[in-house]
Amino acid sequence: MKNKLKEPVYILGVGCTRFGNLLETPEIKGLTLQEMAAEAVKEALDDSGTDPSEIDAIFVGNVTMHTSTLPATYSQIAKWTGMQFKAGVHFDGACSTTNIGITLGAMGIASGVYRKVLVVGLESTLSQPKKLSPFDRETIPTEEMWLWTDYCVNQAYSVPQGYDIFPSYNGIIAQAYCKKYGISIEEFEKGMFELCRTRRLHGSMNKRAINQETLEDEAKRFGFDDPYAFWKSNYNPFLAWPSRLRSAVSAADGASAIVISSEDGIQDAPNLPIEVKGWGVTISDLPWYEEDPTYMHYDTLSFDKAYDMSGITAADIDYLHVHDCSHISSICTAELSGYLPKGEGLKYAEAGRLRFDGDRPMSTHGGRHAFGHAWAASAGADTYEAVKQMRGICGERQIPNVPKISVVHTHGYAMVSTVMVYGRR
Amino acid sequence: MPKSIIRGYYEDLEQKKVIGKKCNQCGKITFPPTAICEHCGSREIETFELTGEGELLFVSHSMAPPPNPRFNKLAPYAYGHVKLKEGVFVQGIVTGVGIDPASLEEWYHKCPVKVVPDIIDAEGLSILAFKIIESQ
Ligand SMILES: [Zn+2]
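Structure tokens for the assembled complex are given below, as produced in the milestone run.
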């Protein structure tokens, strides 16, 4: 593998809807997926100062066709986004989708074929069309959503023999982490509580997050003065022992969009372009780990590829997001990346060092738990946050030392490990 | 007529046989079986019977109601990470283990423990589960 970009590629603009529930959340309530995508695209085009006529190709991602009923998504949203008669494709990298789209678009640009590319991700995880209505939607039960989402997982052997994401991606990894580093279950609980507190603090400062309530406020709402007592209560049950509900993903509906460009397309950019310095993509089937469940080999390969392509080391990273639909898995990944020392992640969380104002800021949009997770749209939302942080415009959750290098890692079910390296010029 | 490898795997389980493939090129085992050696890509692979015995390294539990209706009667169940004697890692349902925190914490401290295959029925499909044999 040559692992080089022949020409530099930039993110020119980003867009993202509020993540929430199409049936409830004020900013997106009553919208269809086409309209949600159009909203994210409009923001990205405006942010990049790009007229739709300048876009050469569109890469559209959607994972759960059962809730969108929009295969061939390129045609379905072409007239909603000004992309009629462009080159286009619908693709799926599960929860890495939008960032995989950036890599596809960037290769199209660096090869000299395209000048500007639009990447879009759209997803509903909470509802489906009601009786084939073009606009009415109805809630789907959580287990149905997982049944459909687990179509991404080994259907030959794992799913029919009892596979479940919560033990595999959460409980077992948590136990392995505690054993490996000599952390007691009580210490683990405290660490996970603090990590959740940090993510929820970030969500509370982000108007696009699905959950904007701090953990402390939520505890009070349930009648607890002590948020840790709330954490250990039946209101926060074990999803997969020893991991609890509030250490995991909040499923959401949402859309995100990114405009990327060659160097000759960024001269009149109204907002600071961010360089796509490199990436690493690695796929794997189950098992995701062997003797040591805290170690996912394909992540090592992805970080190595991304660091090599972009010419950075872990020491250069100013802001990191790693896939955190399981909080303990995100700690393992952050340690694997070299951003946090091995076995120290929970201590860093307890000391507040992972907060936006800490020395190792992570997931300042709130992550998969507080910002929410809308499968195909989420990686774009992570990139959105990285871009806004590097432009220094994140308001009260702005990282004080505006990041020069940001790294965004996602686990596309199950798995496409994707690491993006972004740089401020 | 071609024979489905996946169908064969489950039919073998019904006969209490745990079948994978072994590679003539690199010597490694592909389990469960696929069309190729998962380690080196060789097509020089042969049917290989595993003991299904091994060590349970960790055990947690599933959600309920389960995503897959096949497990409506079984969920929530204990679900574990197993290292088979042959060096293969596999996850599966662990029968006979309670999913209350106290029970799981007990097994957390006891693990690794020996397991043997416990082939169970899930809505008409024979699947590979495990049961613990305690060596007191
Ligand atoms: Zn081989």
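The two ends of chain B are 50 Å apart (CA to CA). Chain B has a mean pLDDT of 97. Further analysis is deferred to the final report.
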